[in-house]
Specification:
Two copies of one chain form a homodimer. Chain A has eight helices and eleven strands. By secondary structure, chain A is of the alpha/beta class. Chain A is globular and about 50 Å long. The interface of A and B includes residues 177, 203, 219 and 223 of A.
Chain lengths: ~240, ~240
Amino acid sequence: MTNSKAHERIDYLFDSGLKIVQSDALFPFSLDSVLLARFAYVPVQHGRLVDLCTGNGVIPFLLSQRTRGRITGIEVQPEVCRLAKRGAVLNQLDGRVDFICDAAQKLPGIIGAHGCDVVTCNPPYFTREAARDLKINRHLAIARHELLITLDEVVGTAAGLLRQSGKFAMVHRPERLNEIMAVMTRKGIEPKRVQFVHSRIDKPANMVLIEGTSGGHPGLRVLPPVAVYGADGKYTKDVWPS
Amino acid sequence: MTNSKAHERIDYLFDSGLKIVQSDALFPFSLDSVLLARFAYVPVQHGRLVDLCTGNGVIPFLLSQRTRGRITGIEVQPEVCRLAKRGAVLNQLDGRVDFICDAAQKLPGIIGAHGCDVVTCNPPYFTREAARDLKINRHLAIARHELLITLDEVVGTAAGLLRQSGKFAMVHRPERLNEIMAVMTRKGIEPKRVQFVHSRIDKPANMVLIEGTSGGHPGLRVLPPVAVYGADGKYTKDVWPS
């Protein structure tokens, strides 16, 4: 375990009023998570929600503003999970949002199978192979590369957690969309909504938001695209509504 | 055979200088085909190109302006195929563009397997089931619904025609994207490029352009979206460059 506390800071999450504990020695939350938390369907009044590979908990914190349901985040790296737990206290969400420091694959065994309404995940985007030659810190490598969990395991874990008609929402790289859809279909989660994120509207997509329904019928909706930056180089309203 | 000649007219294809023979009694070409003809990769100097379900030949005519290769269109409805053949003469393309009046599925048996560089197709979008209750004319029903050819057969025929690394480009409905990608993958055509078409940029996509490579490696590029109409209600430059 690294002594990373000296590098920790508390940031505000956009204009949400939420605080997030970050560490320069680990890795910060990303726009990907913020967009996923906005994209995902959530039941408003109650429900059981789970966020796999939760990092410092940014997705559960943002989702907590859209639902009164109970949210559990699971994070395999103890140093990172500790930041999430501190965030829950800071934001006075303990009781409604909780974190488990363990491998995501174990979650159905911990909280029970097929009881969740929603599963979200901002998983490692890159394969184990792609990680080989990279010289990045171990925490970042685990978050970005499929060293401890694969796409297949993420979707399989979600399928094991979801009730019939429950929803799985994920952010990922468009390069892997074909594989993502194939894995979801194979695990019984039918892709239903997709939204592409472009750094600018005239550039190829660099992110995909995808949602599927457990046991759903075929039929995909491709939502209007999200542009991160406008022609003026500033954030668009898609990203920073105000 | 209906006597549709009285309803025929000759239209210009946008600003291409090309003429197209249309019939009100059959069905006109669509923006879908025009966008596909722009989206598809074509070898410039030479090559063997094929357009399945070619209708009145709009895709071969438009592709002929981007390549010196030889293009064959195949159309199962004789009355419609006749319009395409007249168009080839009108545009002085006979010799370089030819049309076969037969079922697309038979094409590999007619021109030989695995000899094509490019296969394009604007296929029927809707399943046979969806056609049951529709009261549209038979010509339109065949063009729009999978009465005489299915998605599986379109992609399978393309796979049979393409050489190794040859490209298949298709326009279709986003609702069926998951199925499209699965069929392409199963037939050995790896999806490589996708572009979504939105009636307006703030509306869900109503068309998808997709290209795959025979025997290609995984890795998808999602191109910038195409908007058909601008905020002013007029065609955008994506659709009508001028």
